[in-house]
Amino acid sequence: MEIRINETKELKNLTIIGANGIDWTNDLLGNADATTYNEETEEHEMSQETFDWWNEYINNNIMDELELVALADELEIEEDIIRLRVQEAVGGSNDMGDEHMITQNVFAEIREENK
Q1: What's the pLDDT at 115?
Q2: Which residues, listed in sequence order, are joined to residue 44 by a DSSP beta bridge?
Q3: What's the whole-model pTM score?
Q4: Which range marks the domain in which residue 61 is found?
Q5: Cα dist from 74 to 65, 69, 79, 115, whole Å
Q6: How far is 45 from 23, CA to CA, in rounded Å?
Q7: Which of 9, 44, 46, 110 can bridge 50 by disulfide, Cβ–Cβ 3.0-4.6 Å?
Q8: What does DSSP assign to residue 2?
Q9: Cα–Cα distance between 46 and 28 in angstroms, integer?
């Protein structure tokens, strides 16, 4: 999804594609009301600070997914079992900013359980 940065007018891209191959950037940002849509320019806009936060969130999400796949392979566990544990743990948080930390904690717990 192309985003116009308010302060610099630079056009930047945020993209997240799920394990199923579907781009869900618009859903993610739309559900969080993360952008403003400019009817005149027909562009999504946000501040640089907001862009940086979402960019980090998306990068963490991508890295967590790659680590989940590697962990499942390493420990010979179904990926869906790990995903369910992560979803249950993250579901208790109301702060999207905590998701990466919670996910990493779940991965650490699974590693410890499978020593």
Answers
A1: 86
A2: 3, 37
A3: 0.91
A4: 2-113
A5: 14, 9, 11, 12
A6: 19
A7: 46
A8: E
A9: 14
